[in-house]
TrEMBL record:
GO CC terms, sorted: plasma membrane
Keywords, comma-separated and alphabetical: Calcium, Cell adhesion, Glycoprotein, Membrane, Repeat, Transmembrane, Transmembrane helix
Main location: membrane
Residue ranges occupied by any Cadherin domain in the UniProt entry: 75-133, 134-242, 243-347, 348-451, 452-561, 576-676
Statement: the UniProt record of this protein carries the keyword Transmembrane helix: yes
Name of the protein: Protocadherin beta-17-like
Chain's gene name: LOC103085625
GO biological process terms on file: homophilic cell adhesion via plasma membrane adhesion molecules
Bilayer topology: Single-pass membrane protein
Localization, UniProt: Membrane
Pfam families reported in the protein's UniProt record: Cadherin, Cadherin_2, Cadherin_C_2
GO molecular function annotations of the record: calcium ion binding
PROSITE patterns: CADHERIN_1, CADHERIN_2
Length: 797
């Protein structure tokens, strides 16, 4: 039971048949050449370029090729000269047998664009074979009663040549009884006929021996001979007669050896030995004798070998029935070999492109021819490939197909195709041939590199070592080979003020980013740049990504004390009235830290004091306050060492020394500097010195009193006394010195009085003193809630 073909395949077959008919009508012109057989390889046939109307270089540029049926190539093209040459020595008898004319079909294939031209090469016969009799001796039994003029046909000679080169004439040696005539058979072959010219007399001459010669039409002619033995018999007046003069029979090819083909039968009215019949082939060719045998008694004709329809399609032979008296009768047997579908179609690949580039539609992948030596439906073929592939089969010429891409291929979607070309005949049972080809899609640079992220954020800690690997970017390319090899580079910076070339570098092979120098968080906290990725294809394709580098802070800046100043020519002394209660604000230590985050969180600690327990430092804002009530027993001069420490790891710190002077009131005329402590310990001066000092003190007190009066009037502060010119800055300190509350930096809730002290001598000092309205309104503040909190913070009750 036949399997129905898919509808898609049937549709392709109908399309292929229509295209074939159109091509047949358009390209029906055939170029024809002829050449003698047995010419040497490389012999000139014709100038193909001239006959096709092509220039001398066009055959090479268009890839001209000669295609022949099957895998046997008889011709070749010399591209340089455009000549068509023989590829090998051709034997007409081997290629065509006794077929005349002998025509070999071929096609000329031109590529770029694809074009087929049909061609025929007629192989002309050369007289290279001599006539040859199948038997060296021919036996004739002729009755002595035979009349003159009786004809006796003789067996013919075989000559593989055709036309005028085959047997043209027969002669016989000189004798007195017979003449030889050359006759023509219905198939055109010539045969010898012996005619009795003088009656025979058995008693006078019982046998004759003659020489039969066959001559062909060559120049000079070639000959073949056979001996004719004539035996003179007694009278036999009835010749055998066949029931039919023509027997016709059909024999399927591939029938087994020994199969009965047909039985011929004749009868003879004579009796005895004159009526005993013997059957034999008469004037049969080598092909008949090699393929058939006949039973001499029964007349059964059987196969000696299996017949091949593709080799010989019919046989014609003559059967002779001879009686014992020398008389014979003849009949003809015509055997037709019927075809059996015993040959699968053949596919011959003429051009195959295993590697085709992507993105190129209508690309020729393969050109091939198909053939089937069977006949009828057994030799009809159809060709198709599997469905759902981006390829098409187009008929280029009779039984020649071109496999092309249906559209542009995409290597990234599919890089390899396995195509099965199936050729099926229409015989019963159907035979098919499959040819598998593998097509690789080569890469074209049609994909730009793509970064794994559109933007990258990297972090690096400041004070890094140069050439530190800070991160990587990565891009991938879907192409292959050099088209997929990515090279990384830094693009021009977005901000022209950022010296990108001195900050980072990139490894062009793997995208690793490196810091070229040590980064400083305080100078540059973050910067952005673009990274490019380009492949190595032609043309090169590229893409880019944004990289943001964040510089992480490191605790590399120790706290810096803004107040009190430590580099003044004279240290600053804070004045505290003895009447001050616990929590009295003496001063505030102001410090900043260049770091950020917890590295800039400052804390304050009193490391050393002249009288421990008298003063305390607020840990979070650096305020120095009295820890208890002052008394007359407390020393007048105090030296405090305050430590300012950040919260980094490891923590960094700075220290500042404060001088505090306890006074009974702000009208005190003399404020000795801490440096005078050393002078107090000196031995008493002479009386003259004391007098001078007393006089100077009285004068200084007077001058000091005047200055205090002027200063109070100018500053309009009744509770504050000063020893020089005083000015109060309007508004808060600049923003860069203002911090968040609790960080230890300057707060906007404070104003500071700048005092400049001048007098005789070289002792000068500058002081920054906080002015707290709630506390300093009357000069001596009361015990407020803030003071209470402060005492509690310091651990005092």
């Amino acid at each position: 039971m036949e399997t129905p073909l898919p509808k898609a395949t049937q549709k392709r077959q109908v399309t292929a048949i229509i295209i074939l008919l159109l091509l047949w009508e358009v390209g029906g012109e055939v170029i024809k050449y002829s050449v003698l057989e047995e010419r040497h390889s490389g012999s000139f046939v014709a100038n193909l370029a001239k006959d096709l109307g092509l220039g001398l270089g066009e055959l090479a540029s268009r890839g001209a090729r000669i295609l022949s049926k099957g895998n046997k190539q008889h011709l070749q093209v010399e591209h340089k000269s455009g000549n068509l040459l023989l590829k090998e020595k051709l034997d007409r008898e081997e290629l065509c047998g006794d077929m005349d004319p002998c025509i070999l079909h071929f096609q000329v294939l031109l590529k770029n664009p694809v074009q087929f031209i049909q061609g025929e090469l007629q192989l002309q016969d050369v007289n290279d074979h001599a006539p040859e009799f199948l038997e060296n001796e021919i036996l004739l039994k002729i009755s002595e009663s035979s009349h003159t003029g009786t004809a006796f046909p003789l067996k013919i000679a075989q000559d593989l040549d055709v036309g005028s080169n085959t047997v043209q004439n027969y002669t016989i040696s000189t004798n007195f009884h017979f003449q030889l005539f050359t006759r023509n058979r219905s198939d055109g072959r010539k045969y010898p006929e012996l005619v009795l010219a003088k009656e025979l007399d058995r008693e006078e001459q019982p046998e004759l021996r003659l020489t039969l010669m066959a001559l062909d039409g060559g120049s000079p002619p070639k000959t073949g001979t056979s001996q004719v033995l004539i035996m003179v018999l007694d009278i036999n007046d009835n010749a055998p007669e066949f029931a039919r003069q023509l027997y016709e029979v059909q024999v399927p090819e591939n029938s087994p050896r020994g199969s009965l083909v047909i039985t011929v039968s004749a009868r003879d009215l004579d009796a005895g030995t004159h009526g005993e019949l013997s059957y034999s082939f008469f004037q049969s060719s080598n092909q008949v004798i090699q393929a058939f045998e006949i039973n001499t008694v029964t007349g059964d004709i059987r196969l000696k070998k299996m017949l091949d329809f593709e080799e010989i399609r019919s046989y014609r032979m003559e059967i002779e029935a001879s009686d014992g008296g020398g008389l014979s009768g003849k009949c003809t047997v015509a055997i037709e070999v019927t075809d059996v579908n015993d040959n699968a179609p053949e596919l011959t690949m003429s051009l195959l492109m295993n590697d085709i580039p992507e993105n190129t539609p209508d690309t020729v992948v393969a050109i091939f021819g198909i053939s089937d030596p069977d006949a009828g439906d057994n030799g009809k073929m159809m060709c198709y490939i599997q469905d759902h592939l981006p390829f098409l089969l187009k008929i280029s010429a009779e039984n020649f197909y071109t496999l092309v891409t249906e559209g542009a291929l995409d290597r990234e979607s599919r890089a390899k195709y396995n195509i099965t070309i199936t050729v099926t005949d229409m015989g019963t049972p159907r035979l098919k041939t499959e040819h598998n080809i593998t097509v690789l899609v080569s890469d074209v640079n049609d994909n730009a590199p793509a970064f794994t992220q559109t933007s990258y954020t990297l972090s690096v800690r400041e004070n890094n070592s140069p050439a530190l690997h800070i991160g990587s970017v990565r891009a991938t390319d879907r192409d292959a080979g050099a088209n997929a090899q990515v090279t990384y580079s830094l693009l021009p910076p977005l901000d022209p003020h950022v010296p990108l070339a001195s900050l980072v570098s990139i490894n062009p092979d793997n995208g690793h980013l490196f810091a070229l120098r040590s980064l400083d968080y305080e100078a540059l906290r973050a910067f952005e740049f673009r990274v490019g990725a380009a492949d190595r294809g032609s043309p090169a394709l590229s893409s880019q990504a944004l990289v943001r580098v964040l510089v992480a802070d490191d605790n590399d800046n120790a706290p810096f004390v803004l107040y009190p100043l430590q580099n003044a020519s004279a240290p600053c002394t804070e004045l505290v009235p003895r009447a001050a209660e616990a929590g009295y604000l003496v001063t505030k230590v102001v410090a900043v830290d260049g770091d950020s985050g917890q590295n800039a969180w400052l804390s304050y600690q009193l490391l050393k004091a002249t009288e421990p327990g008298l003063f305390g430092v607020w840990a979070h804002n650096g305020e120095v306050r009295t820890a208890r009530l002052l008394s007359e027993r407390d020393a007048a001069k105090h030296r405090l060492l305050v430590l300012v420490k950040d919260n980094g790891e490891p923590p960094l710190s700075a220290s500042v020394t404060l001088h505090v002077l306890l006074v009974d009131g702000f009208s005190q005329p003399y404020l000795p500097a801490p440096e005078a402590e050393a002078a107090d310990a000196a031995p008493a001066a002479p009386l003259t010195v004391y007098l001078v000092v007393a006089l100077a003190s009285v004068s200084s007190l007077f001058v000091f009193s005047v200055l205090v009066f002027v200063a109070v009037w100018l500053c309009r502060r009744g509770g504050a006394a000063s020893v020089g010119r005083c000015s109060v800055p309007e508004g808060p300190f600049p923003d860069h010195l203002v911090g968040v509350s609790g960080t230890g930096t300057l707060s906007q809730s404070y104003q500071y009085e700048v005092c400049l002290t001048g007098g005789s001598g070289t002792r000068e000092f500058k002081c920054l003193k906080p002015l707290v309205p709630n506390i300093m309104g009357e000069g001596v503040g009361t015990d407020t809630e803030e003071n209470s909190n402060f005492r509690n913070h310091l651990g005092f009750n």
